[in-house]
């Protein structure tokens, strides 16, 4: 049998055994002899030039960008109350999740990939047991009717809650990751959001959005039918935000850890119940999560914008946890010996 044919059969066996990338290279080390015309590892597209900004390659070439956490992400099929907000539409914010404590909405969240969800650490100060939590996606109401089977099909149990290690109950480092017990099923109403390594380019951006099921005014809960609210807000630059919060009796503002957003007249803001939800900005057709709803001085007060955790400051931590929590596929016990046998046949005579 020709060497090329044997190489093709070996490749098919490796694919069925779940071997990819590094696994193939490991076999190459065990069996260094290669038939002419075969390759040691799959072809990879060259890395794009990095220029300190988001880089998008053509769809045919695939996506190559180390500044984004996952791909595909940040797309929604539906084109376009939080304080000063309005009712949203199903599918407009497909990464929006409802974290439910004993079945009732408690905090917002965002979907990063099929198994990982991003939220605020302070949501779990009193309730750290994952078995008490579920995550709901693809639903417009925070209190869907019992007969909607769709709702319960897209409600996922939480397996692990990972609060950022240095979070101590203050406003600093208010970020947490949740690993789900099973993989989320994507559809046009459920999609992940992008996370970028830097958020500096969004300073002073006036068309970002915050979403959630929180109070529509300070002290006023969201009324029936409890529909997801959306509000367009502006990112306020660090120097202005530091000035607004540098007053006695206020929590301190850390420009390296936090982002301010809202409107200085207080007409648009996040509020109680929105905690953990996303602050998202659009960049070249992709939606990127810039912040996590964290804290504020009341809701919708003049010169008191909402304060959000700066997601990009934790990019490496998020990336590390997600990579560590995604095990490599286990090869089939039956197919692996066959692959090794065929690898032996590729040795030069």
What is the count of DSSP helices, taking H or I runs of 4+ residues?
6
Provide the succession of SSEs. HHEEEEEHEEEEHEEEEHH
Low-confidence stretches: 12-66, 326-349
Percent helix = 10-25%
Strand tally? 13
Ends distance = 13 Å
Radius of gyration: 24 Å
Bin the strand percentage: 15-25%
What is the 3D form? globular
Mean pLDDT: 74
Signal peptide: 1-21
Domain Peptidase S1: 82-323
Keywords: Disulfide bond, Hydrolase, Protease, Serine protease, Signal
Protein name: Peptidase S1 domain-containing protein
Quick structural gist:
By secondary structure, the protein is an alpha+beta fold.
Overall description:
This is Peptidase S1 domain-containing protein. Residues 82-323 form the Peptidase S1 domain. InterPro entries: Peptidase_S1_PA (IPR009003), Peptidase_S1_PA_chymotrypsin (IPR043504), Peptidase_S1A (IPR001314), Trypsin_dom (IPR001254), TRYPSIN_HIS (IPR018114), TRYPSIN_SER (IPR033116). Residues 30-50 are annotated as: Disordered. By secondary structure, this protein is an alpha+beta fold. Helices cover 16% and strands 22% of the residues. The chain is built from six helices and 13 strands. The chain has helices at residues 3-16, 22-30, 149-153, 238-245, 315-324, 335-345; strands spanning 86-87, 96-101, 104-111, 116-119, 133-137, 155-163, 176-180, 208-212, 229-236, 258-262, 278-283, 286-295, 306-310. The strands form two sheets. It has a six-stranded antiparallel beta barrel with strand order 8-9-10-13-12-11. Strands 2-3-4-7-6-5 form a six-stranded antiparallel β-barrel. Helix 1 (3-16) runs antiparallel to helix 6 (335-345). The longest helix has 14 residues, at 3-16. It starts with a helix and ends with a helix. Mean pLDDT is 74; it is low at 12-66 and 326-349.
